[in-house]
Queue: 4 jobs
Job 1
Amino acid sequence: MYLERSIGIPKFIIKNHAIVKTMNKSFLSFYTNVRSNFWHAGFYLFCRCTLALGFIVAGWVKIIDERFASGLAVKHPMGAFLEALHHTGFYYPFIGIAQIAAAVLLFIPRTALLGALVYFPIILNIFVLSLAVRFEGSLVTSTLMVLANLYILLYNYDRLKFILPFSDKSLKYDPPLTLRETENDPHFKKDVPLRINFNLASIKSPLVSKKFPWVFLGMIILISVITMFASNRLFELMPRNNYGDCVSRLESRTPEKAGFDFCNCIHNQGKSLDKCLKDYEEINKK
């Protein structure tokens, strides 16, 4: 501290640096507790398996050259995109291969982080696409899958931090220890993250916390409820899956005639979403 003052570093920089160091220390302590918790290990396994299964199904449909969501009409904005994607030659099954590769990597504990890194840009693209065309069929699931993917990445922060924009001086790799390694290491430090599995050995080990994360569970439930509620309230107009569904689920704030014209524009006339939204705005101005 004396050296920092002697060379003329402003006080606010020194103060901010101290705050960052405190926050970093608090986060590392929280991260260590998460990695040592039996229930977080279970949720980590759940996220890996559910994400992997989702991409295996979606990827296999592409590999066998079937159009994804084949029940969706071509006039629908998402249906039009999927129909065009289906006719892109070898690129279509290539996407399926990439999805299954990411799923397999997620299934294997040693390659789970690599799988999550491959998985993330794919699922993020699906989320943005669902948002852009207002497709409720994947808006909820893709949002939750993005969040689950982020959880897997953060769970592996001890390795992921080396590709993040941090100062080199702050980086030090302490590989997570297995329960067997901690038993054979007399110099084991409790502030080192553990590599535990969701199994009987973890339940028996005194080093593994069995405290149930009620706050974390509450956050998951809250986020899920908000996501499901917001997906139907995010936009005043949504194409829905078909004309009947579109008409019957118009918002109360939507003028009836303009809403009917919008649904007709999408599902019967087959115009683009942007064009139908523009026509809807013009009708409302009259």
Job 2
Amino acid sequence: MKISTILDHIDSGFIALPEFQRGYVWNRDQVRAFMDSLYRRHPVGSLLVWATRSDEATHRGDGRLAPEVVKLLLDGQQRMTSLYGIVRGKPPRFFDGNEKTFTGLRFHLEREEFAFYSPVYMKDDPLWIDVSAVMREGNDGIGGHLTRLSSRAEHAPKIGVYLGRLSQILGIRDVSLHVEEVTGEDKTIEVVVDIFELADPDTGDPIAIFDLAWEKGLQEGLSDPVALLLDEPPATLALANAHGFRYFTGIDAFKRYVETEILAIREPVAAAASG
């Protein structure tokens, strides 16, 4: 699904954030690295959504949900919130965090690098362009940038190169992301996701929250504790490892684990039971 379509679905309430999800926790380095990957068309992972009835869904924010069916974002909130803030120039309605994290992103047309606005560093260099402005203004905005740059002798020879790079930024809106979907009337919040709060064994105080985790394993008593940790900082991964969780940082790797190990456990168990 194109990024522009996903953002439109957020606006219409067809995609929303479930109430149990945490707020926005990314920092500027993560936003910058994410946008650089999109600009260079590197893989940025897929999204995981839960399709459920709108009248039964509890969601963050005060926006209205689309009628009948809504897709609740189980994984990808940090990425989609960052993109929404940069492309739309404002946070989505379900936002809970520091919007300065994605505000003021700039791109240097010569060095092809992203950085957040710094007046001292950028004010005298017209090659720093406002990424949100490019996204909002579209091709008309690109034309304005090129007109200004072509009036300067030192930049005029590379107008064609700069046009390509501006188009590459604008084209981020058309990048397609794979959307993994959980469906079925039998799917409840308990079936779809187990939110796990990791506590300090000595004090009982919470030290981390895993969005997708199974403390007793996917096959209780037969498999290790497991967690799907996407968009998580290294500190959270280290905590998961230290507390005995086998964790995965990508959906594809997690699916391979389920298919090659968990299903392999279930088949002999089922055969023994029938015997």
Job 3
Amino acid sequence: MPTSPIIITGASSGMGKAAALQLAQLGHPLVLLLHDGQKGRDAHAEIVQRSGNRAVELEHADLASQADIGAAAARILERHKRLAGFIANAGAHFSERTLSPDGLEMTLAINHLAPFLLTNLLHDALKAHGAARIVLTASSLQFPFDFADYNRDRAYDGYRVYGQTKLANVQFTFAPARRLEGITVNCLAPGLVRTDIYRRTRGAPASSHTRYWRRSWPHPKKPAKNSSASPPILPRRKHAASISSITNRAAPSPPPMTKPPRNSSGR
């Protein structure tokens, strides 16, 4: 039976919660790293109750705050010297420019800088495991990163900013996959999934037309009928995954995708 836990963010709902439940049902110890609130506590209680797995811990952190992330990582490392994995699933999309407690654009802070920081803070414990895995939830919606205006001080387009952070996730995946020994690093594009990623969004992604089509998107608990969903534990590979599939060789960075029609969106 596994003894080293897997850290997972974004497990209070959607894909993260579904993944956490499946992993808990398989007997894996988990640490759910969630924002402090009743929703996270309820998700934790439900996962423990439904899985019967008492080795599911709840840890709190505001993933927009680097101080909060650092404090949470320190608490986790006090309890666990070895970690079996880190699943960076938490993500956010904002219609209007919002700043984090550190003065950073919020989408960038949560979607990219949080998993980047956590990967570095948890690195030693992941390496100590000897066969740990890191998985980042990216997206097929990607736009070139604007380094000249990374904090979006000039114009703000939430749709494009989200796509930039998802490309940053993919680019970041390739770097540690090449550099980290003993740690397998992958990213994935889940496609259109019925989650609440756009709960803070107004405009096209939250329009009534999109809400209508959203009903046909697969629920996180159920794979799409035409999908070839991987099991919760992916086969181990030496290199990072491409954005579309798991491969056994390093893939070049994918080109940015053009903006899809206004009635669709990607996670």
Job 4
Amino acid sequence: MNENENRSDLNMQDEENTSIHAPAETVETQDAEVEIIEPEYDSTAACADAGANEAELERISKEIQAQLKTYKITLWGVVGSIGLYLVCLFMIKSNALLLATCVLMIVMAILNTRYSKRIQKLAKERAALQASIAKPESSATAAAAEDGLQIGTVNTSDPVVTGVESLNELPKEYTVLDDVDFGDFSAEHVVVSPYGVALVGNADCAAELNAVLQEIGVESPVFVYDPELDIDTLAQNIQSEKIIALDEQQIMTICQKLLGLR
């Protein structure tokens, strides 16, 4: 009887020891995967904004050209009215003509001042717009630099545009200025681009143009072309120069000086 009880006690102790020393169950944990979703860059909207800015820039440039022509007309009107005033004062000696000439001179002077202010305002708008366009293009500028489009290198990536009927159809890196006055001489066109300055007109203007470039401290090659050439040939000749010579700031400085805004 006692032996059975002892055996049962031993069995119970073995079971307790087994339960105590049993290995604990392992719990496997899994790391939660976190997916980070970055906001997508709306390239379509950016391209649309860039296109709108380019169109606005082109509109302002054309308006400046139109205002410049009227400005020159009013300037000659002021000069002519002064000459007519002197003639009436010393030769004709007519009070009625003298009064009419004074009125004409005042009107022309007022118009000339207004057009001058309009041109200056448009030039400021264009400069601000060019600055805003240049900011998002910083990465593109860096990429261009990596491709070798730096001053002194040759740009062979842009094709030559042919079949044009006006120099204004040249690619956007060419800025065309019409009827540029150099004092005693006048050039039909001056085209400013990263590749230098193209002068279309009297070769005597080249010396005056070089003097202007020296005055503003810009070193640039000057290419002189015969205005008698047909427009398409002229455009192709201008585009044949592909050595990068000017940066954007130098181009802007030259254009402002030739437009009389500096």
